[in-house]
């Protein structure tokens, strides 16, 4: 099943920081044969997406010690999403941690913080183990909230999310990547004064772990709950865009 939100309204609204997302269809004809082509203009991270390792950094350094000035207006010479796409490597065991269902709610309260102890408790309740090379998906029910409210003013700024402390829990298990159905995977609450998105800093720059954002985990959550199987093959290849620091993705879970 596809985990792509595929929501044009969300894409257009979240694309406002880089200009409104546009989709144009042009008609071309060479009589008697006629055909159409698509033209899409959009920020690559205004939809279901992967953050490349070059998406975030601190102290002027990217993952693996590459200098931040390797990113220019022409793209990322280092740690770009194209390096991942070229390997075809985003295929593996996916594990869903359905935190919303574990709490017994349709979606988490705004600004709720998920601590590593809750990830562990959710996995234990589901009877699944998270291990080396896994791609962990965290369901908060936040995509469902978007479908009901269509409120981007609060959907991002008041999103629930994981704590920076979850980085250690994921590192101990050698997790390959993490994705969630919210705006930024982690909580927007500043757990350290003056530090914005500390989990991104740890995951992208220090751990080399890609982050997937704005994934639709509703159908997968229902399916896993029904058959009590919370593991599956996940295929989530980014687009091969040279120098890009992120990419739209249509993730597919196979059970």
Short description:
This protein is α/β, with parallel strands linked by helices and 255 residues long. Helix content is 26%, strand content 24%. The radius of gyration is 18 Å and the shape is globular.
Explain the overall architecture.
The protein is α/β, with parallel strands linked by helices and 255 residues long. The chain is 26% helix and 24% strand. The chain has one domain (45-254): Putative cyclase (Glucose Oxidase, domain 1, 3-Layer(bba) Sandwich). The protein has helices at 8-14, 81-85, 99-103, 116-126, 142-149, 152-155, 166-172, 198-207, 218-227; strands spanning 22-30, 33-41, 49-51, 71-72, 75-76, 91-98, 113-114, 135-139, 161-162, 177-180, 210-213, 231-235, 246-248, 252-254. The radius of gyration is 18 Å and the shape is globular.
Which features characterize this protein?
single chain; 255 residues; alpha/beta; two-stranded antiparallel sheet; 14 strands
Over the alpha carbons, how many angstroms does the gyration radius reach? 18 Å
Report the span from N to C terminus: 9 Å
Given this structure, which CATH class is correct?
Alpha Beta
CATH topology: Glucose Oxidase, domain 1
């Amino acid at each position: 099943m596809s985990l792509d939100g595929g929501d044009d309204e969300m894409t257009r609204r979240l694309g406002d920081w880089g200009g409104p997302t546009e989709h144009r269809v042009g008609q071309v004809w060479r009589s008697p044969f006629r055909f159409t082509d698509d033209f899409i203009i959009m920020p690559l991270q205004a939809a279901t997406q992967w953050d490349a390792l070059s998406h975030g950094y601190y102290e002027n350094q990217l993952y693996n010690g590459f200098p931040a000035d390797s990113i220019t207006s022409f793209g990322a010479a280092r740690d770009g999403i194209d390096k991942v796409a070229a390997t075809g490597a985003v295929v593996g065991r996916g594990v869903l941690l359905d935190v919303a269902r574990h709490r017994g709610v349709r979606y988490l309260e705004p600004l709720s913080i998920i601590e590593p102890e809750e990830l562990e408790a959710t996995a234990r309740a589901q009877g699944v183990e998270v291990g080396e090379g896994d791609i962990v998906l965290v369901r908060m029910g936040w995509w469902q909230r978007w479908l009901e409210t269509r409120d981007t003013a609060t959907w991002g700024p008041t999103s629930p999310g994981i704590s920076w402390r979850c980085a250690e829990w994921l590192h101990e298990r050698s997790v390959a990547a993490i994705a969630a159905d919210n705006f930024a995977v982690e909580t927007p609450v500043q757990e350290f004064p003056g530090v914005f998105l500390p989990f991104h800093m740890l995951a992208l720059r220090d751990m080399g772990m890609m982050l997937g954002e704005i994934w639709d985990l509703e159908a997968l959550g229902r399916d896993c709950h029904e058959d009590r199987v919370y593991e599956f093959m996940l295929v989530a290849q980014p687009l091969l865009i040279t120098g890009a620091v992120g990419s739209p993705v249509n993730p597919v879970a196979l059970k």
